[in-house]
Task: inverse folding
């Protein structure tokens, strides 16, 4: 196998499997990308019939940015758990984007993802603040009845 980078249209490698992980808040998505015909499954359900439309659009972003030649030559199987439905959608988005870049070894695709969204490949660094002692949440304190 040659070490040169492949073009966006040359993705037909038989028998290659890429496993990538995407995280957002407490949601974790594991994507398995293989050569195929363009099928995408999330937790055993085809992506086209995902019930939440906004989450479906978020999960499809890397596939739409990659183009028809890449999208129609790979199959993507994703298992996601934890978090809410939008955190799960963003975790799936990150896992698919990382997997497509690694599957194709394409710097041009990586640059397209970076220009579209900074967090498409790196993930969102924001985390919840830990709860402090004697408090109900991170910032909340008891109310005072005077003043």
Result:
């Amino acid at each position: 196998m040659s070490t040169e980078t492949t073009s966006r249209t040359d993705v037909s490698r038989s028998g290659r499997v890429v496993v990538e992980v995407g995280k957002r808040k407490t949601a974790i998505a594991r994507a398995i990308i293989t050569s195929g015909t363009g099928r995408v499954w999330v937790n055993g359900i085809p992506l086209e019939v995902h019930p939440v439309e906004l989450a479906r659009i978020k999960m499809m972003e890397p596939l739409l940015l990659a183009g028809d030649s890449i999208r129609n030559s790979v199959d993507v199987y994703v298992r996601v758990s934890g978090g809410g439905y939008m955190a799960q959608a963003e975790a799936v988005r990150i896992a698919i984007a990382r997997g497509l870049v690694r599957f194709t070894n394409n710097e041009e695709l990586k640059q397209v993802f970076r220009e579209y969204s900074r967090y498409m490949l790196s993930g969102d660094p924001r985390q919840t603040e830990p709860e402090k002692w004697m408090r109900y949440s991170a910032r909340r304190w008891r109310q005072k009845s005077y003043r």
Summary: Residues 85-104 form the longest helix (20 residues). The helical segments are 53-66, 68-71, 85-104, 107-116, 119-122. The chain has one domain: 17-122. The beta strands are 17-24, 27-35, 40-42, 45-46, 74-81.
